[in-house]
Amino acid sequence: MSNIEQTLSIVKPDAVERNLQDQIKNEFKINGFKILKEKKIHISKDEAEKFYKVHESKPFYNDLCAYLSSGPIVVMCLQKDNAVSENRKLMGATNPKDAEEGTLRKKYGISIDKNSVHGSDSVENAKIELDFFFKD
Ligand code: UDP
Ligand code: MG
């Protein structure tokens, strides 16, 4: 049985700064994801705070929001069978040091904060996050 899902991916400022967005987009394509929508944007700190609201109570919240709004990002709607978990698998662990060989964060991530990509962590959050960036 197929289980087509859509998920949000973000190429974070550290990766856009190194001009890695095409390479990362290619990784999605060769791993069977369709890129249904994409745009390059530069969000404000206020918008980043809204996006990462679930992390409000965490000690790293302020730095995280400052970071996501520090430069351009590329946001994408990815589609594949089980896209949410497939994307999380392709991304690897939050900390690039712990990420498995071949994952995006292992290949491109610099540190736990500059870990190059974001991916929704559940189907429910994917809907909320896709709405956040792509609702007209
Ligand atoms: N993060 C951080 N310090 C930490 C944990 C997380 O800077 O100790 C950042 C990291 O960039 C991560 C983001 O906060 O991607 C969101 O954290 P989450 O636990 O949701 O990780 P993810 O879902 O991105 O793997
Ligand atoms: Mg997360």
Structure summarized in a few sentences:
It is built from 7 helices and 4 strands, in the order βααβααβααβα. By secondary structure, it is of the alpha+beta class.
How would you explain this protein's 3D organization?
- With 136 residues, the chain is of the alpha+beta class.
- It has one domain (4-134): Nucleoside diphosphate kinase-like domain (Alpha-Beta Plaits, 2-Layer Sandwich), CATH 3.30.70.141.
- The protein has seven helices and four strands; from the N terminus they run E-H-H-E-H-H-E-H-H-E-H.
- It has helices spanning 13-17, 21-30, 45-51, 61-68, 83-91, 104-108, 123-134; strands spanning 4-11, 34-41, 73-81, 117-119.
- Helix 3 (45-51) packs across helix 4 (61-68).
- The protein binds uridine-5'-diphosphate (UDP) and magnesium ion (MG).
- Residues 55, 60, 64, 94, 112-113, 115, 118, 121 line the site of uridine-5'-diphosphate (UDP).
Write the layout of secondary structure elements.
Elements: E1 4-11, H1 13-17, H2 21-30, E2 34-41, H3 45-51, H4 61-68, E3 73-81, H5 83-91, H6 104-108, E4 117-119, H7 123-134
The structure holds uridine-5'-diphosphate and magnesium ion.
